[in-house]
Design a protein that fits this description.
- This protein is an all-alpha fold.
- It has 2 domains: about 200 residues, no CATH class; about 60 residues.
- The chain is about 65% helix and about 0% strand.
- It has 9 helices and no strands.
- Helix 1 packs parallel to helix 9 and helix 6 runs antiparallel to helix 7.
- It is flat and about 70 Å long.
- The two termini are about 40 Å apart.
Amino acid sequence: MRDATFGQYYPSKSFVHRLDPRTKILFLIVYIVAIFLAKDFYALGACALVFVFIAAFSGVPLKSLLRSVKGILLLLLFMTVLNLFFYSEGKPLYDARWDFLEITDKAVYHTVFLAVRLFLLVLGSSILTLTTTPVSLADGIESLLTPLKLIRFPVHELALIMSIALRFIPILMDETARIMNAQKARGADFESGGIIKRIKAIVPILIPLLISAFRRADELGDAMDARCYSGSKVRTKYKKLTFGWRDIIAWVIGLILLAGVILLKIFRLPIFYFF
């Protein structure tokens, strides 16, 4: 549980940390769009190169970035099995006794391609949360959604909810680890037995975790009421968001990446014969 990086912040004064949160949010959107527009490894290679460039200037240790991938290993294994054995196009790599065990060259290509795409998506998203505090992230979202106030959309409340949710993720993880250690001290076993037994063993964890979450939410609500919190009614900002020269560089890199991926999609370059 402690290896999860989503919602956690890595303090530093790097180039990426000093970017405006609005720039980082928009850059992540452009980065995700570029990854989904990529149709070959040339385009994915460009996205990977940009990620390596950003990671180098973020000051975040590589170990912290790779921890975010642990949460998708099961999904990656499931996706690999589906693509290898159920993608029928292409030439078989070997003679299988049964058709459902047949693996083709295109199946291998698409499996590797989707795995790399998923890795880049998760790593790119983790950079945002690792280099941006929940408060700054909420301020950036609120600023970007400001035009929706014209139609009376509760922008400030939405940003506040997202900020609280991000802030509570590491807190609930620590709470889960504490409850598990307490249950293990009482003789609970979470690591042996079949899947049914393990699911039943989770119940003594979920109940106190839910009670703790509701208690923390109630305490947070009382604290906000005690400080006369009134939502977005004529509220001022202690720190005002401003764009700088670092943001201009980030915009240029994002636009170059998006334009490059689009060009590679139009003028496709062959790597293997089945492209």
